[in-house]
Amino acid sequence: MAFTEEQLVRYSRHIILPEVGGRGQRKIAQARVLIVGMGGLGSPVTLYLAAAGVGTLGLVDADVVDLSNLQRQIIHHTADLGSPKVRSATEKIQALNPDVSVVPYETYLMAENAMEIISSYDCIVDGTDNFSAKFLINDAAFFASKPLVHAGILRFEGQIMTIIPHQSACYRCVFAGPPPPDVIPSCQEAGVLGALAGVIGTLQGTEVLKYILGIGTLLTNRILHYDALKACLRAITIRRNPNCPLCGVHPTIKQLELEALPLCETHTVGAVSA
After folding, report:
1. Nearest of 123, 125, 115 to residue 30 by alpha carbon
2. Which of 176, 144, 178, 150 is nearest to 163 (CA)?
3. DSSP states of 252-266 as a string?
4. With contact defined as beta carbons under 8 Å apart, do 165 and 145 qualify?
5. Is 61 buried (19+), middle (13-18) or exposed (0-12) by CB count in 10 A?
6. DSSP-assigned letters across all residues of the chain
7. Does pLDDT of 124 surpass 80?
8. Alpha-carbon torsion (54, 56, 60, 61), positive or negative
9. In whole angstroms, what is the distance from residue 86 CA to residue 162 CA?
10. Which sign, positive or negative, has the C-alpha torsion 218, 222, 223, 229?
11. Is the pTM of this model over 0.90?
12. What distance in Å separates the CA atoms of residue 184 and residue 179, rounded to the nearest whole number?
């Protein structure tokens, strides 16, 4: 594909990077990325990938914009209150970069629809805030052989890891299954620092772009943990678990299952944004 003069100016700070160049920017323009959750994590991921010129962004969320979201979900504005999050996010993407095609899914990601939705994308981003959704997304990405950039935030701490199915440790290699109800406080109970979502979500966007471009070292077989209060980043090495019920030598999980109700939106059984 050939860039217009306007596109050459828009993406000039990418193109002058030797690791990106015109060839890399074309890769970005041809990429298809699915973002599950248009909340605290999905907001910065979506905005930065749109600004970068990712060709197609799929957005999954069934929620509407609530006043309590605006403290961290920066893709939504006060005027969007009551609007579906995917619609609000689509408007911001189109205003930011008309080069980007948006595919909105005003639905929760469920065991029944996950494989169909993710099948046409190159990379999946987990921007959800509950364990049920995270295990579902991990499993769906594994069965579809799609790379996944996972993240989670709570209070002043966040974590991120990248998963390449059949090559690196998956989410279940680290966490066998969702914790029992009430063991970990919900986001409404514990709270979250708004800017923390921006830090972790931006790291997710960086991982996606590195994967698309094939540059740098991905966060595979590592969890990057960030403690905002201590201003400390720590990389924790992990390994594929041969006894993992999903990707181990003798897997016991053969199909998608939603294992427990979400922690932060107990009236749903699907993916909820952070």
Report:
1. 123
2. 150
3. ---S----S--SS-T
4. yes
5. buried
6. ----HHHHHHTHHHHTSTTTHHHHHHHHHH-EEEEE--STTHHHHHHHHHHHT-SEEEEE---B--GGGGGT-TT--GGGTTSBHHHHHHHHHHHH-TT-EEEEE-S---TTTHHHHHTT-SEEEE-B-SHHHHHHHHHHHHHHT--EEEEEEEBTEEEEEEE-TTTS--HHHH--SPPPTTSS--HHHH-B-HHHHHHHHHHHHHHHHHHHHT-S---TTEEEEEETTTTEEEEEE----TT-TTTSSS----S----S--SS-TT-SS--B-
7. yes
8. positive
9. 24
10. negative
11. yes
12. 8
Residues 147, 210: Cα–Cα separation, whole Å: 12
Q: How many CA atoms lie within 13 A of 178 on its CB side?
A: 20
Q: Are the C-beta atoms of residues 131 and 179 closer than 8 Å to each other?
A: yes
- pLDDT 10s digits, 66-116: 999 999 999 999 999 999 999 999 999 999 999 999 999 999 999 999 999
Task: Give the per-residue pLDDT at 274.
Answer: 75
Class of domain 21-237: alpha beta
Read off the tokens for 65: 């914009």
Total residue length of the chain: 274
Paired tokens of 112 = 């029944």
Would you state the structure tokens that stand for residue 35, as one six-digit string?
């973002």
